[in-house]
Specification:
Helices cover about 75% and strands about 0% of the residues of chain A. Chain A has about 260 residues and is mainly α. Chain A is globular. Chain B starts with a strand and ends with a helix. The longest helix of chain B has 18 residues. Chain B is α/β, with parallel strands linked by helices and about 250 residues long. In chain B, strand 6, helix 5 and strand 7 form a beta-alpha-beta unit. In chain B, helix 2 crosses helix 3. Classes of the chains: A mainly alpha (about 260), B alpha/beta (about 250). At the A-B interface, helix 7 and helix 8 of A face strand 5 and helix 2 of B.
């Protein structure tokens, strides 16, 4: 594949440049050689800085994301369906959503710490806030874009409200919802790492590991942690993309 | 089907600012059993509103829509929309099955009926295609099959062939005549194309501008299949055109 070949040129140049500069500098506190970083990455079971191994850190990060993201789905999808479908329900929550939505999730951290204290609850809450709005907004958008003529087709066959919701509104909205989930997951992941770097919050996870490595000047561990975060984010994003392509190939406009 | 009578039908739309537009006024006509009735009218005159009222998608603000056997409340109506309105997430088979699915017909029975209609509408080989994978003409066939699946008493068609090229349109007009003859339907077909009306209908109603009502009525007794280039065909076209133009 010629395209693949062209695409890897720049990353390879960067890696070679990195290695050259690292060798000339010869200072692992500033720029460690690639070998050091790779050896950390490929030994994910080894304990690091007394905070657990990369695997353990990944596990506790994923657990938090799963909890916060799951909660955002549980509330965001039904609420989005309701707000998109019922004008009254939509208007009822419209202002409060519009006011809260633009606030960066991390701005809530001090408040959340004050209200929920240190620990899992606070981390989950921040992730929830990050994931909730994209899921909600996309679900509303999906429901609102249902074509009137599709609903009328169902009505000419004497369909009731429940049938219309189940057989028209939900299938039409499902690709929008999955897009919301993908974006929400991206935000959740960012919020998680930032939350784990806050002082006093949940002493475990990839964000915490990176922060600990920083305090002791272990650049290799910082970079290895970043690589893990990036790779996991990529895998999750690709999984959602795969779902979008596989299950929603009927869509008229291909992205 | 029993005779359908439209009596002094009126539809007034009132906007939020209390301005009102009368789309249909003093509309009276009837549809006979197994008749192919075409309604011909200028764009935006309220033809679609009329059809939507008969289908129950819109409530009239005056007048009556009556079936002869008034005690039988539930009349099955098939509707073919102008833009097809096929459900893009459903395959050909599943789109056709939609009406039966909503009526909780057993799966095995649905499968059989759908297969028959796929055959009948020449859709073989496209059973599992999504609408976006079908040509415009094929999409029409699916839309017609979907309306036929519930064995409607009355088939309402809202300018169904308007978006097709001339050749495909002619093919589908011939197909529709075949469907009508074999299934013994009653069809109420809306169009603004005089040629189409003369080719298809037993009877043509010419409508006025908005607020619309019936302006003239023309019976067509030409034998089918009709020849668009014949003298008789041209004569009827001329007659209808002159009735459309007369104040």
């Amino acid at each position: 594949m010629k395209k693949r070949l062209i695409k890897i040129i720049v990353p390879i140049i960067i890696l070679i440049g990195w290695e050259l500069i690292a060798m000339t500098l010869d200072n692992p506190w500033k720029l460690p050689q690639l070998g050091n970083i790779i050896s950390i990455i490929i030994h994910p079971n080894e304990g690091l800085l007394g905070t657990g191994s990369l695997i353990e850190s990944t596990y506790s990060s994923l657990k938090r994301v799963a909890l916060g993201f799951g909660l955002a789905c549980l509330i965001g999808i039904p609420m989005g369906l309701g707000m998109g479908w019922s004008k009254i329900f939509g208007n009822l929550f419209d202002y409060i959503i519009e006011i809260l939505r633009p606030i960066p999730p991390l701005a809530w951290i001090p408040l959340i710490l004050a209200w929920l204290g240190l620990g899992l609850r606070s981390a989950v809450m921040i992730i929830f806030i990050g994931a909730f709005f994209p899921i909600l907004i996309n679900t509303i958008e999906g429901v609102k874009s249902v074509k009137r003529s599709h609903i009328e087709v169902a009505r000419t066959f004497n369909a009731g409200q429940a049938d219309i919701l189940r057989k028209i509104v939900f299938p039409h909205s499902s690709p929008y919802i999955v897009t919301g989930l993908r974006i929400g997951m991206g935000t959740a992941w960012m919020c998680l790492v930032a939350a784990e770097m806050m002082p006093g919050i949940a002493p475990s996870g990839l964000g915490y590991l990176i922060w600990q490595a920083n305090t002791v000047g272990q650049i290799s561990i910082i970079i290895a942690g970043i690589v893990y975060i990036g790779a996991l984010g990529l895998i999750i994003d690709r999984t959602f993309k795969y779902i979008e392509v596989k299950y929603f190939s009927w869509r008229e406009t291909k992205s | 089907m029993k005779k359908l009578t439209i009596n002094n039908l009126e539809k007034k739309f009132t906007s939020e600012k209390k301005a009102s537009v009368v789309a249909v006024k003093d509309m009276s006509f009837s549809v006979e059993d197994k008749e192919f009735l075409c309604i011909l009218g200028p764009s935006g005159c309220g033809k679609t509103t009329l059809l939507r009222m008969i289908a129950g998608l819109e409530m009239p603000t005056g007048g009556k829509i009556e079936w002869e056997d008034a005690q039988e409340v539930d009349h099955r109506i098939g509707f073919v929309f102008q833009d097809d309105a096929l459900l893009p997430w459903r395959s050909t088979n599943d789109n056709i099955a939609f009406g039966l699915e909503l009526q909780n017909v057993p799966k095995e029975k649905i499968r059989k009926k759908v297969a028959d209609l796929v055959d009948f509408m020449n859709l073989k080989g496209f059973e599992s295609s999504y609408p976006k994978e079908l040509s415009g003409g094929m999409q029409k066939r699916v839309a017609i099959a979907r309306a036929l699946v519930i064995e409607p008493d009355l088939l309402l068609m809202d300018e169904p062939f308007v978006s097709l090229d001339a050749q495909t349109r002619n093919i589908l007009q011939r197909e529709l005549i075949r469907v009508w003859k074999e299934k013994h339907n009653t069809i109420l077909f809306i169009t603004h194309n005089v040629d189409e009306a003369v080719f298809l209908a037993d009877r043509v109603l010419v409508l006025t501008e908005r607020p619309t009502s019936v302006k003239a009525e023309v019976e067509i007794t030409l034998a089918r299949p009709r020849d668009r280039t014949s003298n008789e065909f041209t004569k009827i076209r001329k007659e209808i055109l002159s009735k459309m133009d007369s104040g």
